[in-house]
Specification:
about 150 residues; SH3 type barrels; 5-stranded antiparallel sheet
């Protein structure tokens, strides 16, 4: 009942930030001021509440820090994956590749990659004057490594 009285005396409305330390301290002071003088609250109870609140606030800050770290790692991973695909595509220039014909599953196209590019976030290679997605590559051969 004393907590409700403190809320009413302050005219407090619920906020979206439940961890507002100013509100907590204000409510605590209101409770102290409005407590029953014949049955005062024990000091250890106040200290326990402060310790709990402090722990909760630190955990919320740690959670926020961990979320920021996860966001950074996610962005780093996405950038790394994109860079890996770029490197992989560029490394195919000059190599002989076999590609599954996207228009005819029974047909395979073999040729030397003369050019590499990116369109819509996807690697493409140019073989025999036509562009093909690297997703259609079946095999890669480096002719320079073959012995004569």
């Amino acid at each position: 009942m004393q907590n409700q009285t403190a809320f009413n005396n302050l005219g407090v409305t619920k906020t979206t930030d439940d961890n507002d330390s100013n509100m907590f301290l204000t409510l605590m002071l209101q409770q102290l001021q409005n407590q029953d003088p014949t049955q005062p609250t024990d000091n250890t109870e106040w200290l326990a509440q402060l310790a709990q609140y402090s722990s909760l606030e630190q955990m919320a800050q740690m959670n926020s820090g961990l979320q920021n770290c996860m966001d950074y790692l996610s962005a780093f991973y996405n950038d790394s994956a994109a860079n890996s695909e770029i490197t992989q595509t560029l490394s195919l220039i000059g190599k002989e590749v076999t590609i599954q014909d996207p228009e005819n599953e029974k047909n395979k196209i073999t040729g030397t990659v003369s050019e590499a590019s990116f369109e819509d976030g996807s690697g493409k290679v140019k073989i025999n004057g036509e562009y093909y997605s690297i997703a259609n590559i079946v095999s890669v051969r480096d002719k320079s490594l073959e012995q004569s």
